[in-house]
Amino acid sequence: MKIVKHYSIQHSDKVLNLVKTILKRIKHKEEITLQSWANGREQGYQLRFFNLLEGSFEIFCVNFAQQRNSDLMLVIPGMHTEFDPQNNHPNDDAWNRRKEFNNDYDAAKFIVEKLLSQTVDLQKIAI
């Protein structure tokens, strides 16, 4: 018996590998947590960055998965409070910030830019 990943997870894996490559190339050292994410037929990942600066505790998230009706990569950035804690669905504000990409590298670059926007001055880093 052969077990294969769902096509949308395979697509998300490609983007995740590109994100890892970009983060490695720019020598990003802060920890980013990976967890699974599902929104119906959209199966992918959520990257979480824990921001502990200035006494606050915020979790910035970027969810990404293959769009359910196409081959586009759907990317939804937002704070953890903008995603339902039980089913991880984005609220309207997060959903309205979603971006769809037909190029995996562009999706990965956008994901990295969103994550880094929480920690560093993007003007100083060439992604």
Would you give an account of this structure?
The chain is of the alpha+beta class. The protein has one domain. The protein has three helices and five strands; from the N terminus they run H-E-E-E-E-H-E-H. A five-stranded antiparallel β-sheet has the order 1-2-3-4-5. Helix 1 (7-25) crosses helix 3. The longest helix is centred in the first third of the chain and has 19 residues, at 7-25.
Catalogue the unreliable spans: 121-125
Proportion of helical residues:
25-40%
Q: How many strands?
A: 5
Which structural category do the helix and sheet elements fall into?
A: alpha+beta
Average pLDDT score:
83
Morphology call: globular
How many domains?
Answer: 1
Q: What is the strand content?
A: 25-35%
* Largest sheet data: 5 strands, antiparallel
Layout of strands and helices, then pairs:
Layout (H helix, E strand, L loop, with lengths): L6 H19 L7 E7 L2 E10 L6 E9 L6 E7 L12 H5 L2 E3 L2 H13 L11
Antiparallel strand pairs: 1-2, 2-3, 3-4, 4-5
Helix pairs in contact: 1-3
Features:
3 helices, 5-stranded antiparallel beta sheet, alpha+beta, single chain, 127 residues
Concise account of the structure shown:
It is built from three helices and five strands, in the order αββββαβα. It has 127 residues and is of the alpha+beta class.
